[in-house]
């Protein structure tokens, strides 16, 4: 007793040091022990009785009747009873419930085995019921939590703490996936020496990036490429080649300069190296050898239009007087597989020999939406020719026209072969049609001329200079420019409508950085793409950290002309091939490392303003205090501060290097458990409320996957967070960072990463490219986010009259014409009898296949686990595989039945296959199969559904409580980062029902989980 | 000196826990390093089994297991040991006829009971994954037992490599190595990162290197001390993760201290010019594998480590390696091919086996080129190559090949077959051959006597 007292006092005093706010609470617990104890005692007595009865009466029965099949070795039907005892540990309660059911229903033991007497049955059932009641009333021990940040949490936390954009986590081993599919489950998280070593490496590297020598001058590299037809008066005189298949802009169509940046601090302007000596190079496709000297910026910076040639309509890119015109960059079919590295069609890039080795960079693109015309396809008809509209080209090239009225016009071009044998035109010029470049004023339109009808374009009234360049063997005779009538053409020509649609769209500008490889491209996007809405030039800025992009890592003095080439690509991004005005790019500028000020913010974040800067020791203490409090996501304790300061002083004493010694102390901070772990400290085995800082962190890692922001920390330190929990969660859900929640929760819950792993059969599903897969993978994430943000009924998860979609997904579903949202996901009414809800998300259906055939078992198991939370047991040992194709030409359904009917398979498959069979309507690409298939199914509760729609209706109506429970269970598991206990599951089942009358509004469900003891207690 | 009296450096470190730093140089440990010829182990795993075509497809010559000359001479005396006649898919190994043996009939006792997909998890461990001890994940893998007994002689206890980095997850593991506690050890897969970690020589002076290391030790020590203090102040919180963290920190510290002695010993001068470190697992499969094998061979040659595991590909179509057959011009993915029952599919599966044999051949060639004081590196290394399934999902008759280790008493050139032999017995035989005198490994019942292993 004495000892206990001493101990508890010590703990309390320690605790007051650590968490002053908790002092009161501990006293409270100590003063009121009596009632809790007696309840516990009672429970203890009861549980002993139950155990005694188990040993004496129950165990022998089970042993004689069950164990011969259900032992650990054989585990018939995946069930072993050998390890069960009378304590009814939480993890065994479900199994006991199952046993009770089997015995009560006389389903077990099987008919052909020894049967229990009816007394024995009664005894078993009675005991199990009693024991379960006792287990449920057992006080739940709660011992806080210590769990490591996941890799993405660690990345977000480190980056926001240090104010860096660079991602250092590439070195970390990926997180393990828990049985429930989550990455943040505390028990499945691994901690290995390699991981700890890596934490040190990362901390070291990250601090090196932050801490600079303020007295040194930073070095800045700049580059500007200006684009336009024949704008370079002094073009490089060499014929430039950058490897096989390379296409470069004409030397006179661009100018490279290195402008001196304007900065409010002193710096060194680094110019790119222009003198080179290479022994290996390319001429066409052949490697050439022999030393050659180069001395020109045009051998260091290239204007490259690489990618497979060919574009469906018009030129992928062409130089116009006012800049470079880009059509949307079509993903190369090579991007189909996970390993595809080929670049897209219509891709412009600056290829250059040097980029800074670290730091942030900025790319500024001056661009506009081109005042474009619509190239007509081969079925378009020429307008009737009239004297007022026809303009002859006497020199075969140019003329001037007078446009009477501003408006839409169709331009038809008539050309003939130069040798005047008209009928041979097609063969002579180009077997597939004549290639022409039409200039109207300053605007350029190139394309194949399959028939006179060439272009629809908006023209202003007045004088219009026209030139037409036909390919060498032909000459243009005349152009006909006809105003388009307001009414659409009776012949069904919709070119005017198409033009207006095109004109209303805006190209989306993306910048990508990577390096050159022979086999293709390694480009990765810089920030988010931007819509270019205006016809006037504007500046668009993209920023990121250079080390987030792949680099070729070649030695400085390499001897190969093609080695180590970095790339900055500028694209008009492609969704689905709809008509799009071209992107006009006037110039591209690079600056890096990019500093707004010097020393940079990442430095002054650490070396804070202080009047004590002269007093090294005091200043160090202030720095450490500020940094550690942010890093630990709570005020640093005096004890912690003292020991960190000691590390500083030890290091400073031996090195006399202030920055270095601060770095040492901060490195310890960044590798300490207080930084690397989410800690909920518990003082007893009873549930205790989270302290306010623990709550701030837990909320923030749950809803943002990142550390708490200033506001959360402020609320925590003034202890107001708990009382404002609803408004705070509301704020957090509306914050852009909530996207991180949606992405990690939805993709882990619904197992969305599978889609990236399935190797899709290209010949059958050619539309399922990597880009399409990326968008399809996002669809469920967007839906979950939308439903929560807008507090919409949960039913929409399984059945809904709208889909969240971007142009790519909509096109995949054949609904491309219903949206103009580009890459942005917005809700649209699908008006389809098969869409709506995650069950028919093509990405999910496709991921639950082998890439060739749909798979009802995979789909069924997924649905059972994820949507109705009735997970099937793991397959028992020695399950015979389904025979691939044994020559009997049985359908998969028949083979399944064969498999199912084997002893040991039935039980599980009854809970799996029925869920998957209705989804057989959809192929391995996630779309409706062309021919009708058998899709009826008898569900586990004996409801018959005939197809997917009936299954959806069944889930949305009859089984909505179960779907809600599944969502809550997965959400609570993710929120708490651990497997839920039996009682917690029961709690969710029971309490979740309260939301039924409001149709399970999704945001409220999230807030319910947050406010539940599952989340709030530790 | 008797091995048992050797001072365990780790024990010393543990004894003075935290007080750290200026450790006396322990001469006892240093001197023997240079003298003994290293004994090394390398495990190379391929998933989804090997091609053992069905009779009716009429392509028996593509079976992975060799035929044996004695099949033609039924009166041969020793039936369990027969001379190798390479099949089409192992033919590339013919130049190493005298340095390799095939072993047939092996299985993991626990593999027969488990879900077939855990076969890669248990290949080196033999653990009862169908019925694990409560709270455990797996059991220690063979390579880690080797590491435990060789780490005092080299810079790195072990090198854990795989086609995909990390651990994967149970039954679809991305690593074949498991720690003493049975936890998966995250694998590395990036040639450049591996090279930088193992071979990139610090350009600073000896003094600079020592200072750098001592600073790191000091910092790790400070973190350890703080973490311990913090751990003490944690009330009744669940400590499992803290314990894991502290253990890992401890291990990092002892590794650092152990590496101190290596500062004075310069890395062996080696030619690295054949490496192409821009290669990743997304590059051509052959160049990826060959660069990885180059790194292993170099690490062995420089005695950086004596224990390596390398998972060439993963079970059940996981990871990028599943697409390698497509990259090589075959028509289906690795996992799909492993399930093929038709002639064309089985032939293609076997052709992929052949591709793997070629990579292995490259590895052996490399190991043979490097010379230790006595014998080639291959003579002083035991290489275990195989799969956890004979052909897909079959837990019996695991395809197994053992190479090298001549100086450890291994006799090669035969196809040994015994239909009821445990893998764990093979694992124990390997350990014993390396002079590691432990009683048993996993569920071993003994060594494989009268076979390629002469030491039992």
Describe the structure.
The complex is a heterodimer of chains A (1018) and B (456). With 1018 residues, chain A is of the alpha+beta class. Chain A has 31 helices and 33 strands. Chain A has seven domains: 30 residues; 96 residues, no CATH class; 155 residues, no CATH class; 237 residues, no CATH class; 130 residues, Jelly Rolls; 47 residues; 237 residues, no CATH class. In chain A, a hairpin with a 2-residue loop joins strand 17 and strand 18. In chain A, helix 28 packs across helix 30. Chain B is of the alpha/beta class and 456 residues long. The N terminus of chain B is likely disordered. In chain B, the strands form two sheets. In chain B, strands 2-3-11-4-10-9-1-8-5 form a nine-stranded mixed sheet. In chain B, strands 6-7 form a two-stranded antiparallel ribbon. Chain B has two domains: 100 residues; 321 residues, Alkaline Phosphatase, subunit A, CATH 3.40.720. In chain B, helix 5 runs parallel beside helix 8 and helix 8 packs parallel to helix 11. Helices cover 34% and strands 12% of the residues of chain B. The chains are: A alpha+beta (1018), B alpha/beta (456). Chains A and B meet through helix 1, strand 1, helix 7, helix 12 and helix 13 of A and helix 6 and helix 7 of B.
Keywords, please?
heterodimer, A: 1018 residues, 7 domains, 31 helices, 33 strands, disordered N terminus, B: 456 residues, alpha/beta, Alkaline Phosphatase, subunit A, 9-stranded mixed sheet, two-stranded antiparallel ribbon, 12 helices, 11 strands, 12% strand
User: Roughly what fraction of the amino acids of chain B lie in strands?
Assistant: 5-15%
The largest chain-to-chain contact, stated as pair and per-chain residue counts, equals: A-B, 76 and 70 residues
Structural class label of chain A: alpha+beta
Radius of gyration of chain A equals 35 Å
The global form of chain A is globular
- Main β sheet profile of chain B: 9 strands, mixed
Secondary-structure element order of chain B, N to C: HHEEEEHHEEEHHHHEHHHEEEH
Which structural category do the helix and sheet elements of chain B fall into? alpha/beta
- In round numbers, the mean pLDDT of chain A is 85
Please give the largest β-sheet of chain A: 8 strands, mixed
From the spread of the alpha carbons, the general shape of chain B counts as: globular
Sequence stretches where pLDDT stays below 50 over 5 or more residues of chain A: 1-37, 334-343, 424-431
Tally of individual helices of chain B: 12
Q: State the helical fraction of chain B.
A: 25-40%
Number of strands of chain A: 33
Domains of chain B, number: 2
